[in-house]
Amino acid sequence: MKTTLKFQLVLIVLALFPLANVASAQGVSVAAKGEFQFEATEIDYGTIEKDSDGTRTFSFTNVGSVPIVITDIKSSCGCTVPTKPKGPIMPGQTAEIGVKYKTNKVGAFTKSITVLSNANESKKILKIRGIVVDSKNKLGE
């Protein structure tokens, strides 16, 4: 009789154990984070003239509940120079990430900018693309 009672008690505990895990998991909150909401994650320069101004900006808003701190911004090559906002971007605040593409080479380009931060998406990829032309240097002239 004692063995049966112990066995039943063990079965009850084992049956209730998964329910305890579900209840505790529901009580666990995910840590609050900042969240990027970009107006655009890709900028198309279109067709631009050689040696023209290659400066553009990516505008975003922090729609999260805590400040976003951008720790680093890296570009895929030295021809693209990004600039990050100074200081944290508070919830509801709008900021800009600047990018300057060196337009001294003729041809099509596609470059990526990697933004590292404490936001919910800690690694965000932005892209620029376009075509640089030299209308002053036409063949046959």
From TrEMBL:
- Signal peptide range equals 1-25
The family database entries (Pfam families) matched by this protein are listed as: DUF1573
Q: Which InterPro entries match?
A: DUF1573, Ig-like_fold
Superkingdom of origin organism: Bacteria
**Record keywords:** Signal
What name has this protein been given in UniProt? DUF1573 domain-containing protein
Originating organism = Rasiella rasia
